[in-house]
Amino acid sequence: MHGLAEGLSLCMIVKNEERDLARCLNSMRGLARELVVTDTGSADRTPQIAGDYGARVIAFDFTRVDFAAARNCAIAHATSRWILMLDADETLDRATAPLLEKIAGGEEDAGYFLERRNLAQDAPRATTDYVVRLFPNRPDYRYRGRVHETIDAAILAAGGRLRRSGIRLEHHFAADRQARRRKNHWYIEILKEEIAADPADHTRLDFLAAEYHQLGMFEEAIAIAERIVQMRPLDARAHLHLGAYHLLYKPDPARARAELMRALKLRPGYPEAVSFLRMLDEREAAR
Description:
It contains eleven helices and eight strands. By secondary structure, the chain is an alpha/beta fold.
């Protein structure tokens, strides 16, 4: 993968990705100087496919599940000025390749959010989120979290900035609903272990609430949302989420209003809080 953005290393972690890996790597053809792949135990042709594309493949012991450690292993072997981190089921929107080349040719100390369009065969429509996947190759920029690993906090802690980029990804994730539910439960157990090991790390609570929410376990999600508000009383978004839970999933209009008003006070004009309060007003007026 020698090509246009000489300052870019594509880093990946993989396991049994022979179905998707070539599609991912083809989307990056000609854009990265090197490809570094951490393999966490593939039993299929994944390492061979990566090697065919010129990758340096590093076997990684995943006996203890730790996705951050696996990602950091790939980063530690990268030699370019910039790192782009992709998963095998993601592809780059080639229309945004010029933006990638421009950033990778620069010197700014910033991590960049990429727009990710999430597609599943059993979902009625795609959803969009934003993930930091492009960042300078610095020894203090490392992922944190055994699951739902992120690098955002490390970049900010080291004095870097976070910026939007306009670069887009497409994410073709598993369509098997039961497989996704098994993964949710698996992640919940690991998150609980992380929280027990470091109760002060409230960022793990956000992901735990999201896992419960995806499983429809709203009582559990609400209990975690309550803990988050206690730990981050000045976080408008935490109050918004708790207010929404009491509005939509565990009806308590008074508590919902109190939390949404708190969110609005902390962030004046907060659009989502205004919208939920309007919904609450309409429900009460219809009684």
